[in-house]
């Protein structure tokens, strides 16, 4: 179990740093339905991570290490593919936000959060974690890493749960602050939202580059051994 959990720690932290779910939660916590929509988006985000991970584990059932302790060639090729895709995605982030105190342009859904119902917030959270290309690739890579360990199905499920919990820390932090501090949390959450908006491009580019290097390096090492 320890091996499986060790494989996903860095992936979980990377997903937790995704800016859009954090910004989305903060925006929803400033609406009249904050007490329901904020947790609903967080739940949807967690469900999306769990859904992708579960599908990958089921599809990858029985894909453990070979007799020599090395992954199968197709598994290494998959890592290489994910690494190349993440490398490409690191250069497809939106342009840097405007400076000189100007507001950052937000996606349309972020400008309409006041009208969201809990069901819509839940669906949005699920879509952001399960369908966003960067988060999807990270979740697939994390679940694939779990599947390749020589551990039982129960241990793999625990490792996936740890990944989901880690991945939920990003959008979960504003929710905890909101319920713990109430009105006093507004200033903290506004500052967090602005910081994430200003640095989203750099954060995601660095994350994608780091994990692209990790996956490509692992694949090259496995295929050449």
Give an account of the 3D structure.
- Helix 1 runs antiparallel to helix 6 (133-147) and helix 3 runs antiparallel to helix 7.
- It contains 8 helices and no strands.
- The chain has one domain.
- It starts with a helix and ends with a helix.
- 73% of the residues lie in helices and 0% in strands.
- The protein has 225 residues and is mainly α.
- It has helices at 2-16, 19-28, 34-59, 73-89, 118-130, 133-147, 153-181, 185-224.
- The longest helix has 40 residues, at 185-224.
Short description:
The chain has 225 residues and is mainly α.
Features:
mainly alpha, 0% strand, 225 residues, 73% helix
Q: List low-confidence stretches.
A: none
What does the main sheet amount to?
Answer: none
Radius of gyration: 18 Å
What's the total number of strands? Answer: 0
Cα shape: globular
SSE-based structural type: mainly alpha
Task: Summarize the helices and strands and which ones pair or pack.
Layout: H1 2-16, H2 19-28, H3 34-59, H4 73-89, H5 118-130, H6 133-147, H7 153-181, H8 185-224
Helix pairs in contact: 1-6, 1-7, 2-3, 2-7, 2-8, 3-5, 3-6, 3-7, 4-6, 4-8, 6-7
